[in-house]
Amino acid sequence: MFSPGYIKNTIKSLIPDSFLVHRLPSSAGNAVILTFDDGPDEKITPRILEQLEEYNVHAVFFVIGEKVAMFPNIFEMIVQRGHTIGNHTYSHHYKKIPSFKVYLRDIIRCQQIIEEKTGNKPILYRPPAGFISPITLLLARTQGLKTVLWSNEGGEWGVNKQDTASTIGNRLINTLQPRDIVLLHDNNEKVPFIMEMILPALKNRSIDLQHGVHAICP
User: Fold this and answer.
1) Could you tell me the sign of the dihedral formed by the alpha carbons of 153, 154, 158, 160, in that order?
2) Residue 36, Cβ neighbours under 10 Å: how many?
3) Which of 49, 46, 118 is nearest to 85 (CA)?
4) Quick check: is 40 in a domain?
5) What pLDDT is stored for residue 14 in this prediction?
């Protein structure tokens, strides 16, 4: 009997990279991408940006359109620091999946506000809670978007939300591998403390935190 995790990973491996990415390709070498969901946040995002700058990290921020509208100055900080912007929908429907019409409209609204602020449309998309189906992948693709999931995560938002930042940080240090796409959240107060732990550890391992994004976003 196959485990649910095995089945899920097998299905993901069968989907073309032009539609879905959950790990960097072998050509990425020892690169790792840090990705941040659910921002921008007026308190936590600036702290994370300072940490990324200190360690010369190029990250991907999957932003919520409503929060871009709410905190335009913080969003501008992300853009000015040269990080890649991804679409995380406008409203972040999480507990209840909306109709496909509403789902598509939410993706488009997020595309529009990001383009309005930056002059460019994102090409990377992450669905709320990582929920995917053939339809959601196709809807994202109609907007020129590649869906990006993750191969490792802090879990501070859900599966490990009861754990301390120290526990999460140590777990990431022990499990992170080259080519991982790491999920964290820049609206969670634990994340700056997690970053304090993992950034020097990854630097000591000579992990490339600068160029991995080019492997999925050429």
Assistant:
1) positive
2) 30
3) 118
4) yes
5) 52
In this structure, what CATH number is given to the domain that contains residue 127?
3.20.20.370
* Residue 59 · residue 182 · CB < 8 Å: no
Asked if the structure places residue 193 within a domain, the reply is: yes
Q: CA gyration radius for the chain?
A: 16
What would the pLDDT profile of 143-163 be if each residue is shown by its tens digit?
Answer: 999 999 999 999 998 777 889
Indicate the number of domains in the chain.
1
| Three-class SS of 82-142 | CCEEEECCCCCCCCCCCCHHHHHHHHHHHHHHHHHHHCCCCCEECCHHHCCCHHHHHHHHH
Catalytic residue among 38, 41, 185, 186: 185
Write the pLDDT tens digit of every residue in 58-116.
999 999 999 999 999 999 999 999 999 999 999 997 666 678 899 999 999 999 999 99
More confident residue, 135 or 177: 177
93 is catalytic: no
Which is the catalytic residue, given 37, 41, 180, 186? 37
**Cα dihedral value 159, 161, 166, 171, nearest 10:** 0
Catalytic: 37? yes
Q: Which domain holds residue 146?
A: 30-215
Q: How far is CA 64 from the centre of its chain?
A: 11
In a domain, 61, yes or no: yes
Question: Per the domain annotation, does 25 fall within a domain?
Answer: no
Distances (CA, A) of 198 to 57, 108, 119: 12, 34, 33
